[in-house]
Write a structure and sequence with these properties.
There is one protein chain. This protein has 15 helices and 21 strands. It has 451 residues and is of the alpha/beta class. The chain folds into three domains: 92 residues, NAD(P)-binding Rossmann-like Domain (Rossmann fold); 198 residues, UDP-N-acetylmuramoyl-L-alanine:D-glutamate ligase; 146 residues, Mur ligase, C-terminal domain (Protein-Tyrosine Phosphatase, Chain A, Alpha-Beta Complex). Helix 1 runs parallel beside helix 4 and helix 5 crosses helix 9. The longest helix has 16 residues.
């Protein structure tokens, strides 16, 4: 019998991916989760021993227990593991063990990690390279993928490198992608300078760095990495002076124009696809096959994901949880031809809401829109006095014809969003917390109205 590795919070997007890869390594996997998430169900469907609710006795006999930063020391299973002296691995430590001996592509940045990681995997597969991956969302279109984890046969894996708790420093990838760097997760890093230093250390541990020079901080880190002897490839918009210049329908690189058609809307996704193309080519993919793949990219869970349509209203679910991401999402909505939109936004984390309230207010102040703000989803944090969704509303300046409403709870927010939508509109459920549940509630309310 193989050693058993037990996961606390196995139903999370990142944890479920690691559980899948640990199982592929030959370990027996068990795990618990408080809620029956889609990721939890995917693991159960794959035959893994996952259970709802925490039970200290389930830890007994495990060779190791895996946790994320969100698991508190008061958790009964973690307390039991500590008492028994069972090794406790952070999720990133388990991932390192699962991918030992693999050639790695690691994608880092404040925004776009999930989509870009999935794009790299998609491009490699389209070019005939059966790469594995660990991505914080379901990756559509790759046969055999369970949740965000897939164990390939090529000896190459793509992973989403998380800066929020510094765990990306455990990876020493062959190729590192730096997408962008903005102030976030300062509850862990303390200062912006510390955050930048962590990204610099991450870059220094890589053989090749692929850097977006549209971002001033990334440009500076790329220059420093190159000066230190690291191989650096840059990409950016027209006029950026990058090695790979991203136009409306092509990449200019090394004297060639490579056609680029991307299924996901928005200029930011053309940049993401270019980063993914450079990484895939670095790992041996045919350049033309890799570039052609993005037209058929099916996306990932909760990244501009169409959840359904009812009463002539489309409902799209998106993970955007930082002001820059929210602004990019709403620009992409307009690029995609959306007319009147309804936006249900659930802020995630009190520290992020406190730091970025003004920028969230600006991002949500869009024309021809009804915006509904749900209460802050605290997740692993305790409330901060005086910090709430009202903190964002105070900074919003809605154009004439647009509205902003504060909801009492998420269900109330879903009702308000559904009632604001009319045939031909698009509703967006936005945020990294439980707001994804609201998409189904909105569709159900719209369906009742349609009847």
């Amino acid at each position: 019998m193989s050693e058993r590795i037990h996961f606390i919070g196995v139903g999370g997007s990142g944890m479920s991916a690691v559980a899948r890869l640990i199982a592929a390594r030959g370990y027996t996997v068990s795990g618990t989760n408080l809620a029956e998430t889609a990721y939890f169900q995917a693991l159960a469907d794959a035959g893994m021993d996952v259970q709802l609710g925490h039970d200290a006795a389930l830890v007994d006999g495990a060779a190791a227990v895996v946790v994320s930063t969100a698991v508190r020391e008061t958790n009964v299973e973690l307390a039991r593991a500590r008492a028994l002296g069972i090794p406790v691995w952070h999720r990133s430590e388990a991932l390192v063990r699962a991918l030992e001996g693999q050639r790695l592509v690691a994608v880092a940045g404040s925004h776009g990690k999930t989509t870009t990681s999935a794009m790299v995997a998609h491009a490699l597969h389209a070019a005939g390279v059966d790469a594995g991956f660990a991505v914080g969302a379901r990756v559509f279109g790759i046969e055999g993928a369970v949740a965000g984890g897939y164990a390939g046969t090529a000896g190459i894996s793509v992973l989403e490198a998380d800066e929020s708790d510094g765990s990306f420093l455990r990876y020493h990838p062959e190729v590192a992608i730096l997408l962008n760097i903005e102030p976030d997760h300062l509850d862990f890093h303390g200062t912006v300078e510390n955050l930048h230093r962590a990204f610099a250390d991450f870059a220094s541990q890589s053989r090749t760095v692929i850097a977006c020079v549209d971002d001033a901080v990334v440009r500076g880190l790329a220059d420093a990495a190159r000066a230190a002897g690291t191989r650096v490839l840059t990409y950016g918009s027209e006029g950026s002076g990058a090695d790979a210049v991203v136009g409306p329908d092509a990449i200019a690189y090394d004297g060639r124009e490579i056609p680029l058609a991307v299924s996901a809307p928005g200029a930011h996704n053309r940049l993401n696809a270019t980063a993914a193309w450079l990484a895939a080519v670095e790992m041996g993919a045919d350049p033309d096959a890799a570039a052609a793949s993005f037209a058929s990219f099916a996306g990932t869970g909760r990244r501009y994901q169409l959840r359904g349509e009812a009463a002539g209203v489309r409902v799209i679910d998106d993970y955007a949880h930082h002001p820059t991401e929210v602004a990019a999402l709403l620009r992409a909505a307009r690029d995609g031809g959306a007319g009147h939109i309804v936006v249900l936004f659930q802020p995630a984390l009190f520290t992020r809401t406190q730091m970025h309230a003004e920028n969230f207010g600006r991002a949500l102040s869009v024309a021809d829109a009804d915006v509904v703000l749900a209460p802050v989803h605290g997740d692993r944090e305790d409330p901060i006095p005086g910090v709430s969704s009202a903190s964002i509303a105070e900074h919003a300046v809605m154009p004439e014809g647009s509205t902003l409403t504060l909801a009492d709870d998420l269900e109330h927010a879903a009702r308000l969003a559904a009632d604001a939508a009319r045939a031909g509109d698009t509703v967006y459920t936005v945020g990294s917390g439980t707001v994804t549940l609201a998409a189904d509630w909105i569709l159900a309310r719209l369906a009742e109205r349609d009847v």
